[in-house]
Write the structure tokens for this entry.
Amino acid sequence: MKKSNCELIVGELADHLLVCGLDDEFCELARQKQRGLRLDDLKELQSMFHHPPEESTSYSIEKHGLGGWLSACQFSIFELIYNFGEEAIPFIRKIAWGEYDWTQGNAIELLIRFAANGIQREDLIQEIKEEFPKIRFEAKLYSIEPLLSKLESSPDIKLVFDELMAIEEFKECYTELTEDDA
């Protein structure tokens, strides 16, 4: 069966993650590849959260773990979605605040990144303040953890984090994730 354009793009990005890790080249590649997609492709991308394209030859259970390929694909999909920009926010919101799924944290991470980049900043921060306490603990942790490494290098993300620290649950998750680093 012939692979769709979405499957090819996600597979290529996930393969890059497995081989090279999360680097500037990955982010640039995702930006370029997103240009070949349309908003209509978001539903297909979402379907790949749990049904990823065929595993790359670079994937190894021993090296990347049992869920390594799925995780690399999910991360790639969210980076593609992020690169749609503001038009993708309604779609991301449905994932972020919908029924629990382990991808929920990824969607909230994107909302935080949008706010940090000044896109619907006040609305998104207010929305996160209202909705964050209602979601499962795991999703809370997953939404914050990928951004921790960017706090020192991105003053904009740090400013959003500072505002979100007003949420007791956000502060608790941040403390849990960083207490061993102290």
